[in-house]
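User: I'm writing a short report section on ligand binding and want a predicted complex to refer to. Could you take this sequence and pyridoxal-5'-phosphate and write out the structure as tokens? A short remark afterwards would be nice.
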Amino acid sequence: MKAVARWSLPVWALVSVTPLLGLRRRPAEVYLGALNPLKRGSLVNTHGPHLSTRDGHLCFDDVDLVELAERLPTPFFVYSAGRIAENVATLRDAFQSRHPKTEVFFASKACSALWVLEQVKKAGVSVEVNSGGELWKALRVGFTGGQIVFNGVAKTRGEIEAAVTAGIRAIVVDSFRELERVNEVATDVGRPADVALRIDVRVPTETHPEMRTAHGGKFGVDLIDAAELFANACSLGPVKVRGLHLHIGSQITSVEPYGRAVEKALDLVEQLEASCGEPLDFLDIGGGYPVPYVDAADACDAADYFCATTMPHDYAEAICALVGARCPDLTLFIEPGRYVVADAAVLVSRVESEKRKRLLDASDHPVGDEHWLLLDCGYHTLLEAAVMQWRYRTVSASRAGEPPDASFRLGGPLCDSADVHIGDRGTLYSRLPLATSIGDVIVFRDVGAYALDTMTQYNGRPRAGAYAVEDGRVVVILRPETNEDLVAQDVWPAEPL
Ligand code: PLP
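Assistant: Sure. The structure tokens for the complex follow:
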């Protein structure tokens, strides 16, 4: 079960936590979570999955993160095999218990490290890919063609050829022109191509504007054109239309848009089946299932997409009821990414510098000051923090037993003003223990999705490594880069073409 804090305590409080799975663990006392700066002196206290404290240090899956940071170059990611398995099981059970004909395809764009793909494979689910590279990785870890669906708006001939050759479950066709291209490639390769047609259901969603994907943007074909696309597809020899695909966005914190999207898709399924007399195999409703990135449900308002109080069973209840009532024989595909991996990883970073800077009023008179902590982790490691203004909760790993009783501004190391971390609840400030200082280890929570794959080397910074806790031991899953990696692709001196 995903832990969603629904309570806020009026005083500093201790919570006894006995983590759920696997290793021998001690009950622990934790001070985790952010203090709402507007409610000074009150602690919104929660515990995250697989987080605990021991001897004043934060542990993840029972591994002391401060000790780990003594041994490894910071910043680095730590994943939990146990949490990935729990998240897969929660989602799969929510849907399959209501609509047994549900298949889960992990959206590998959320994290395509081979170890992560292997974990979801071991958990018994399939995979969704978005490029020839992700397809190659999926095949590399042993997914069969039948376990792969391939999305994307601009697939190259080479990518389509690889998909057709692998005999994947479905190439999700995004446009009329792409349908022609799939047909040409399949004809050349001499193999059939199973496809699904991506439709733009035009359903508004309350999420980050750039995470809305069914609103007239670049994805899919309009509903009113879907019948024509379908007819075209059915007339092509090697192309077999197996299903429809939609995806309304990411971090969708209410159930209602799914209901509207699925209703529209089912209308189309019925229309297409009536016109061609053949049933479709599946409806793929994409991903988007949300993760809570803030502590207190009581502070949530509907427009704040960092708050997620809805759970997989809420989505499953609504969606499966619709499918069961109208098309009970239709297989349902879901493509979760974020939900599977977000809270299955933390990012461990270190305070490298600190300073106090004055706050000035409009007449440049000092009216207070700000305490800055400068970390070794910036948006080269957490790109979404800058690109999407994504908020991650921070916790002191070094002082996990101390109350977060002071406000700090957190900055990264990059030579860019945008390289600052958004504070608690969208404020400028993060609450951490007063004594937090240089050398302390700071942990960013819920960073498992869309971080590893979006790291950059900007500013000449080698990409961070990633480790995982698996069967009670820490394993390396992504080697930390070195300075040599910064120039690995450089051709210098330059060579003639
Ligand atoms: N499926 C498709 C087609 C997507 O574009 C995405 C990401 O936006 C996903 C699935 C996964 O979404 P999420 O990580 O929010 O579950």
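A remark for your report: The chain has two domains: 15-79+345-485, 81-342. The mean pLDDT is 89.
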